[in-house]
């Protein structure tokens, strides 16, 4: 008989979308060659959009949400994985078009999995999660464009959020001087504690940007888009680079080409979902060796299944500090 397990599921009817905590059976999972007992998932901005149906992240119904997870393989027909292996997964449409991580059991294509790097637990992998992985991809993009610790200060927007806070830690631990942009002045102490040398108010970046402004930053990691990204671009020093990965402010980019054609600034697009395997493994290797996990823990909030819907609202309202890990299967009783 196939195993029963608990999962969140989003379904769609004429009345709209509905999020429910359900008992499912293994045959309800989608095809895949590796089955994983999920131990931890994360809560990312995109998960907030999916769980609240505020944006069309979920594109197939019914669907188990959760864009990342870490756990232990229970069955495998994939040559690279065997029962007992510890693995993690981010992206590849999991939680969007394929059943995701807010579930005790997941069945996926083994090509999407990354073996858990040595020395980190499944919980630590999700403390890093999609957000931390994306931060590392941003750092790698800046390095590729020659932005190194001696190039000058690197600006990080959305500083108190998941991507922003891990980016600050990574950059500071690599020896960069980091300026953090936040809308929450109350997080100043936290941001300095994780490595920010200066903390700026995001209001300074929220008005319509001029084509060029005073050259201040060697590089930047931007999670906001919109006027924030346009203002950041206008302030980048000659030859600098910006890694753009998010739209927390807006999908629009009301910017001028002036920084590109007069200052040789590079705008690097960052996508974590379809990152090729080799770069994925390299990013996780660096995250597992170069990130101070004790420091990361300072910005981590752990929740159980029952708290997911309210945490989803909170992340969209910009009220969550750092990373949120979801302990899968906890808080289940009485909630189904
Ligand atoms: P979080 O919600 O944890 O962080 C986002 C932060 O952005 C907030 O904490 C806030 O920081 C800041 N922010 C919120 N609203 C605004 C606004 N109107 N203007 C300027 N800043 C704002 O989300 P994540 O860190 O998980 O994700 C950040 C962004 O990156 C999202 O847009 C997400 O979709 C995107 N992303 C993209 C990926 C990719 O593959 N390209 C992968 C992962 C994430 P503060 O309070 O400090 O101001």
Please tell me about this protein's structure.
This protein is globular. Helix 3 (162-173) links the parallel strand 8 and strand 9 (178-182). The strands form 3 sheets. Strands 3, 4, 5, 6, 7, 14 and 15 form a 7-stranded mixed sheet that branches. A 6-stranded parallel sheet has the order 10-9-8-11-12-13, with helices on both faces. It has 2 domains: 4-116 and 299-327, Quinone Oxidoreductase, Chain A, domain 1 (Alpha-Beta Complex); 130-269, Rossmann fold, CATH 3.40.50.720. The protein has 9 helices and 15 strands. Helix 1 (45-52) crosses helix 9 (308-316), helix 2 (122-144) packs across helix 3 and helix 2 crosses helix 7 (277-290). The protein is α/β, with parallel strands linked by helices and 336 residues long. Helices cover 28% and strands 27% of the residues. The model has no long low-confidence stretch (mean pLDDT 95). Residues 44-46, 130-131, 134, 157-164, 182-184, 202, 223-224, 228, 245-249, 270-273, 315, 318, 320 line the site of NADPH dihydro-nicotinamide-adenine-dinucleotide phosphate.
């Amino acid at each position: 008989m196939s195993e029963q397990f608990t999962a969140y599921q989003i379904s769609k009817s004429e009345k709209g979308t509905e999020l429910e905590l359900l008992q499912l059976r293994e045959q309800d999972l989608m095809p895949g060659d590796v089955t994983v007992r999920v131990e931890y998932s994360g809560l990312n901005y995109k998960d907030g959009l999916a769980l609240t149906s505020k944006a069309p992240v979920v594109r197939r119904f019914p669907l188990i949400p959760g864009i990342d997870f870490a756990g232990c393989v229970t069955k495998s027909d994939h040559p690279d994985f065997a029962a007992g292996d510890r693995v993690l997964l981010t992206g590849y449409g999991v939680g969007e078009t394929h059943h995701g991580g807010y579930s005790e059991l997941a069945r996926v294509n083994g090509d999407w999995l990354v073996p858990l790097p040595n020395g980190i637990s499944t919980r630590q992998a999700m403390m890093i999660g999609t957000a931390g992985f994306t931060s590392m991809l941003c750092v790698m993009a800046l390095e590729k464009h020659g932005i190194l610790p001696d190039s000058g200060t690197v600006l990080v927007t959305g500083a108190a959020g998941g991507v922003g806070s891990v980016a600050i830690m990574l950059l500071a631990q690599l020896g960069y001087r980091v300026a953090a942009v936040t809308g929450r002045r109350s997080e100043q102490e936290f941001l300095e504690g994780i490595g920010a040398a200066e903390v700026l108010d995001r209001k300074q970046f929220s008005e319509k940007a001029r084509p060029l402004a005073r050259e201040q930053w060697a590089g930047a990691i931007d999670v906001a888009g919109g006027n924030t990204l346009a203002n950041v671009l206008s302030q980048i020093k000659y030859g600098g680079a910006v890694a753009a990965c998010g739209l927390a402010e807006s999908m629009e980019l009301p910017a001028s080409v002036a920084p590109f054609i007069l200052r040789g600034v590079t705008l690097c697009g960052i996508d974590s979902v379809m990152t090729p395997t080799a770069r994925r493994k390299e990013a996780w290797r660096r995250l597992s060796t170069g990130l101070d996990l004790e420091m990361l823990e300072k910005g981590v909030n752990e929740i159980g299944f029952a708290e997911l819907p309210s945490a989803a609202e909170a992340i969209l309202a910009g009220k969550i500090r750092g990373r949120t890990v979801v302990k899968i299967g906890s808080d289940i009783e009485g909630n189904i």
